[in-house]
């Protein structure tokens, strides 16, 4: 009985040990080939909600892109508690310039130059229409040999209009009055390319955070240990 009570307490503690000061969720999206200009896209976004604050990390996961239409340029998200206005406290990303031969030069870590605005009942982060756009879209990693060997002239244009890109993750710290640690992000839409409104079709599904999976795994392991222990206990005479 003592073992059972101890394990029950540990399971309960495991289920409750969530960060009291933050709520984190990740959304991943991988578009089927043909989504935009016949080319695939892939991106992820991790959101953390705090008191009156949303932190966001964006990554373009599409390796060795062919065209700038595969670059991430916009994200729209909705909060479970309904906030749709705020401001950018800070943002940063590392610049990357792709040369005509597919090599690239890493630049400094700079402010993204993206803007935050209201989008219906949600919030939108966007680089198009800003002073820095159409540069500072988010590019994915290179391919074999550390080269952007697939890149056409819209990417591999050196100091052209789309360079420099940002290489993720790019991070934002947003002031969103009314957000609490109980708030979460209920839906996300990504946009790609340098034409506004080129959204993905459908909303990506959230991915469990590693801490959640770890707690679940620990709980299941504990239950397994209890079952094995009970099988090994000798039967006491009555």
CATH architecture: Sandwich
| Overall spatial form | globular
Residue windows where pLDDT falls under 50 for at least 5 positions? 1-19, 210-223
Largest sheet: 8 strands, mixed
Measure the end-to-end span: 17 Å
Mean pLDDT score, rounded? Answer: 81
Secondary-structure-based class equals alpha+beta
Q: In CATH's first tier, which class applies?
A: Mainly Beta
Order of helices and strands: HEEEEEEEEEEEEH
Measured as a percent range, the helix fraction is 10-25%
Can you tell me the CATH topology? Answer: Immunoglobulin-like
Question: What does this protein structure show overall?
Answer:
It contains 2 helices and 12 strands. By secondary structure, the chain is of the alpha+beta class. The chain has one domain: Immunoglobulin-like (Sandwich). The strands form 2 sheets. Strands 1, 2, 3, 5, 6, 9, 10 and 12 form an 8-stranded mixed beta sheet that branches. A hairpin with a 5-residue loop joins strand 5 and strand 6. It is globular and about 50 Å long. The N terminus is likely disordered.
